[in-house]
Design goal:
It is a single chain. With 188 residues, the chain is α/β, with parallel strands linked by helices. The chain has two domains: 97 residues, Rossmann fold, CATH 3.40.50.2300; 69 residues, Orthogonal Bundle (Arc Repressor Mutant, subunit A), CATH 1.10.10.10. It is built from nine helices and five strands; from the N terminus they run E-H-E-H-E-H-E-H-E-H-H-H-H-H. Strands 2-1-3-4-5 form a five-stranded parallel sheet, sandwiched between helices. Strand 4, helix 4 and strand 5 form a beta-alpha-beta unit. Helix 5 packs across helix 9 and helix 6 packs across helix 7. The chain is elongated and about 50 Å long. The termini are far apart.
Length: 188
């Protein structure tokens, strides 16, 4: 089980991430921190976790890394567009997710897959629901990861919250289940 610590000064962000990740069996949010003090206490209490750090904590990044390294906790940074990923990765972060990147438009099918991912479906379940193979779903996911610049489901969930992809994905899923008009506006 992957233990997650969410550190951001915005309660709405933490609540959104917590809601998305609540459906993941392999991940559990063990702490949320709004202040530096809360974050450092959580790092000390929950060792060998993953710290997702954003917002006002970037100014204390070196102290965050030192504290995390002492307790074998990996750090994923949520950065703003224009900030150098290399700066964070070179300093010791294990990943960087951008909040405000310009992304390629996801196709309707990719949005449906994203919607199912954030609802907690596994690749095999998605494949069954969409009438395809698990390998095809993996291929789609690789394409989605490449388009939006993430490397796994956790980063996809974070990106989804920040960029409101859930809204697009919900619309794509609803549209896929709407009856299609036939000739002369007759639903088929």
């Amino acid at each position: 089980m992957l233990k997650l610590i969410l550190a951001d000064n915005q309660a709405i962000f933490r609540a959104g991430i917590a809601k998305v990740l609540a459906v993941e069996d392999e991940m559990r949010i063990v702490a949320q921190a709004q202040t530096s003090e809360q974050m450092f206490m959580a790092l000390d209490k929950f060792r060998a976790a993953v710290l997702i750090v954003a917002g006002g904590f970037h100014g204390e990044f070196n102290a965050v890394l030192q504290a995390a390294n002492k307790v074998r906790t990996r750090v994923v940074v949520l950065a703003d567009t224009g900030e150098s990923a290399q700066k964070y990765m070179g300093a010791g972060a294990h990943g960087v997710v951008y909040r405000n990147v310009v992304r390629d438009r996801l196709t309707a099918k990719e949005l449906r897959i994203v919607a199912l991912i954030v609802q907690g479906y596994k690749n095999k379940e998605i494949a069954t629901q969409l009438g395809t193979t698990e390998q095809v779903i993996k291929n789609y996911l690789r394409n989605v990861y490449d388009k939006i610049g993430v490397s796994d489901r956790l980063e996809l969930a974070l990106f989804t919250i920040h960029h409101r992809i859930l809204n697009e994905a919900a619309a794509a899923t609803a549209a896929a289940h709407q009856p299609q008009p036939g000739p002369a506006g007759v639903a088929t």
